[in-house]
UniProtKB/TrEMBL annotation:
This is ATPase. Keywords: ATP-binding, Ligase, Nucleotide-binding. InterPro entries: ATP-dep_AA_Ligase, ATP-grasp, ATP_grasp_subdomain_1. GO terms for molecular function: ATP binding; ligase activity; metal ion binding. It comes from Dyadobacter fanqingshengii. It comes from the Bacteria. PANTHER family: ATP-GRASP ENZYME FSQD, FUMIPYRROLE BIOSYNTHESIS PROTEIN C. Transmembrane segments: none annotated. Residues 121-315 form the ATP-grasp domain.
């Protein structure tokens, strides 16, 4: 009898329980590398054969030499067949491990397209995909040429942070240069981009054998940057089915993931439709399931659990079996999440039958709703936003670094 395959998963954030469970149910051996400080989180322990804990350095990074040495010792007796990163911050670690031990999967070059905002913009632009004007911060003359070509305002973004952390908006050249000088010796780790006001969308998809086999399109009702920096309420809703919006988003995501060489993975891509010209511009992508509980929202409308299907697809690929996506449902769904004033707010006021998921996180209020009509979803999200704003909402300043 063939031995069970061993998957090494890496998640230095607490997430991915559905993935770990589905991997185990598919007959695999499951190892998990996670941060020591997350040891007591409610991981699905019966789905994980072995935990390996790593200490975070003072600068928030992990010592890859220690991880490689530890794995080399483990692999003397326990071979590892596949390595999967469950969070943005672990993509590079997984690529490094694959390359070092020659394990199949995404290497460091492709991995950069999904982690480094400069690499992803450069590659997208080279592939004929529209991106807002951008520039590296390596060279002063190049920055001045950028300022001349693309009028402000501009955003300065860290090249390798997830979400809206560390992003700053500048209105004029003096302010922009001041911010660049403040970055000092770290400026090479950032880029500058023209700020384009518009509607921001996210496309959540699964790629198998280099082909996008599932793609779900949604629209943020407030851009993530505005939520993070304006202390707003996070909301997103399914894009109308068979609309020009849906077709444009799907085409852009498929072209992009093909250009980036994504073979087998879940991915989360953000796109902006510019108010000025109505065109769709690529913002960023990642080779993982979207954060902020967007997978619950996608599952509510499509019936597809991105974590579980990703795990099943990875297993089929590793075994050389064929993977088939389950039937997809087409309902509309929406999500609303906000920080709350109380540790465990009483949510009994939210009692509509359309509610299919509730968030269980301290100092948060979060709901997912599902309905046959998009209008109903938006009506409920608007209603809930008013109630949350009035009775629950608290805001915290946006962190410079992501918090766990």
């Amino acid at each position: 009898m063939a031995r069970a395959l061993t998957f090494l998963c890496i998640s230095t954030y607490f997430k991915g329980n559905d993935f770990l469970k589905a991997l185990k149910e598919s007959g695999n051996k499951v190892f998990l590398i996670t941060a020591k400080k997350l040891e007591h989180k409610p991981w699905v322990r019966d789905a994980v054969d072995e935990f390996f804990y790593v200490e975070e350095g003072e600068d928030g990074t992990y010592n890859m030499n220690e991880i490689i040495n530890g794995l080399a010792y483990i692999m003397r007796e326990r071979p590892i067949d596949r390595v999967v990163a469950l969070d943005d911050f672990d993509v590079e670690k997984a690529a490094h491990i694959r390359e070092y031990f020659r394990i199949p999967g995404m290497g460091q070059t492709t991995g950069r397209y999904f982690r480094d905002k400069l690499a992803m913009r450069t590659k997208a632009a080279e592939s004929g995909i529209l991106v807002p004007g951008f520039s590296a911060l390596f060279n002063d003359d190049a920055i001045n040429a950028f300022i001349e070509k693309y009028p402000g305002p501009w955003m300065i973004k860290p090249r390798s942070e997830a979400s809206a952390t560390g992003i700053k908006k500048m209105e004029n050249a003096a302010e922009l240069w001041e911010t660049i000088h403040e970055l000092g010796d770290k400026r090479h780790a950032y880029l500058v981009e023209q700020y384009k006001p518009g509607h921001v969308y996210h496309v959540d998809s699964i790629s198998y054998n280099g082909r996008v086999i599932f793609s779900w399109n949604s629209k943020y009702l407030a851009p993530p940057f505005d939520v993070a920096h304006g202390g707003g309420i996070f909301r997103s809703v399914t894009v109308p089915f068979d609309s020009s919006e849906e077709h444009a988003l799907e085409t852009l995501a498929v072209d992009l993931l093909k250009a980036f060489g994504l073979k087998h993975s879940a991915s989360h891509t953000e796109v902006i439709r510019c108010h000025d010209d109505g065109k769709y511009y690529f913002l960023e992508t990642s080779s993982r399931v979207g954060g902020a509980n967007l997978s619950e929202m996608v599952e509510a409308s499509s019936g597809i659990n991105l974590w579980k299907e990703w795990a099943k697809m990875e297993t089929a690929e590793a075994k050389g079996d064929n993977y088939k996506l389950p039937a997809v449902r087409k309902d509309y769904s929406g999500i609303i999440i906000s920080l709350a004033r109380h540790e465990w707010p009483d949510l009994s006021v939210f009692n509509d039958p359309e509610i299919v998921w509730r968030m269980h996180e301290p100092y948060h209020v979060g709901l997912v709703v599902r309905a046959k009509s998009r209008e109903k979803v938006i009506e409920l999200l608007d209603q809930y936003a008013d109630i949350i704003q009035r009775d629950y909402h608290a805001s915290a300043p946006a962190p410079d670094r992501p918090t766990h």
